[in-house]
Amino acid sequence: MKSLLAAASLVVVLSAAPVVAQTAAPTGQTPAPQAEAAPAPQPPAPFPQGAKVAFVNLQAIAQLSADGKAAASKVQAFTTTRSNELAETTKGLQAMQQKLQSSAGVLSDSARAALEKDIERATRDLERAQQDAQADVNELQQELQQEFQTKLLPVLEEISAEKGLHFLFSGADAGLIWAAAGLDLTLEAVRKLDAVTTKKP
User: What residue segments make up the domains of the chain, in order of their start?
Assistant: First the structure.
């Protein structure tokens, strides 16, 4: 089950944050659509007695649990900060571009050439800043993802042991088409994970 969780958890935190480079795109570009939130699971049905297989919705656990919400908030706050920084840089570049356009007939050849070089330099700087910001966001996401996985794995192992399961699947990653409602242990995992978080000082 450890290998299953390691593969499936890649979507747990990542979908919480927009891409920095997209949010800071120059005016006129449309940001890519955000990933849709996983639907909240229905109230759990009784677990079928004797069942040896069950599943959870990892995305829902991340969205409903206190730890998952906290991680998403950290990523969102960090992303917003970096996006605001990039927006200021973008404004400066756009101001230079506007100056070049509006003063095209007034500037001397040397002044226009100098301004064009400044614009090229500012464009390269902005692209590097976007790449750096995206790398920083990705690094934070990976760190929080690892922390969340470290907390969640023992909870899922505990549930599996309590239920006497042979397999516990990530429903979305397993390509689940249909299963008895009682086999969905998502909300139980959220309750146990929140209980562990609450107990810690």
Answer: 2-199
Tell me if the pTM is above 0.85: no
Per residue in 142-151, is it b (16+ CB within 10 Å) or e — as a string? eebbeebbeb
CB 39 within 8 A of CB 60: yes
Per-residue pLDDT of the chain (201 residues; tens, 9 = 90+): 444 443 344 345 444 444 444 433 344 444 444 445 556 656 668 899 899 999 999 999 999 999 999 999 999 999 999 999 999 999 999 999 998 888 877 888 898 899 999 999 999 999 999 999 999 999 999 999 999 999 999 999 999 999 999 999 999 888 888 989 899 999 999 999 999 888 765
